Amino acid sequence: xxxxxxFLAANVTAAFSFTAKPVSHSTSISSSSLSMKTIAVFxxxxxxxxxxxxxxxxxxxxxxxxxxxxENLVIPAGSGGSSAGSPLSDDKLTMIKxxxxxxxxxxxxxxxxxxxxxxxxLGGKTKDVGETMLTxxxxxxxxxxxxxxxxxxxxxxxxxxxxxxDQAPFAFKILMSTVMKKIxxxxxxxxxAVAQSGLDYCIIRPGGLNVEAPTGVVNVIDGQAGSIPxxxxxxxxxxxxxxxxxxxxGKTPCISSVGGTGWVKDRSASARGMD
Length: 275
Fold this sequence. Notes:
Layout: H1 2-15, E1 23-25, E2 38-42, H2 47-58, E3 62-67, H3 77-80, E4 93-97, H4 103-111, E5 117-120, H5 126-129, H6 133-147, E6 152-156, H7 170-176, H8 181-195, E7 200-206, E8 208-210, E9 218-221, E10 227-229, H9 230-242, E11 254-256
Parallel strand pairs: 2-3, 2-5, 3-4, 5-6, 6-7, 7-11, 8-10
Antiparallel strand pairs: 1-9, 9-11
Helix pairs in contact: 1-7, 2-9, 4-6, 6-8
């Protein structure tokens, strides 16, 4: 992680330039809503997914979450303010312990309530979760969605995944083809499975993630992207599964809150919520 941070810090600044003007995403683009009541979040205790859980509850939605370790779900640093790090519980929250690669565990999520939309924010080190967890788990989730007539899904992957390789900085491209090759193979296969699913999907490719407070700014970038708080990514995910006329359904937007110059992939303990 330290090598990655130093390598990017030394090489990324010169690599960044916009090839297109960023387009700001705003909830005002749609005046109608899917009137969702229940959102399923997979990988719910993760840094981005916990933002999705927290913000959905604040919006008054019901959330059903699946996580390997539900007890790790806490109020997120970005949106949680002074309550950040405290256990996250709510009358409208149901947490289920399980694995996304286990069909029985995933089925429990859909049995817990009538799910209207799904957010997939999976993570973990390849050596811990396996080389195909993202693809396998997402396929299991989508299979259960089809069985339960759930159409809308938002999947968080990464800048550089799929056809966005040229949107990643040069140094990150090197890492994608070397030390991160296995995880990006899985991400690419995950994206392909989602794109071929026939579901109303949005594949979300964020730039450099951090755990700062939300900016309220989400730029959809055609060129190379900058950094973005996980809280802003979460809001975009929630829009993707709650807005009827969400403009990026069937698309793979790369998003950032900060312009493309000088972005450094922050792998510090602070960015990962570990300090």
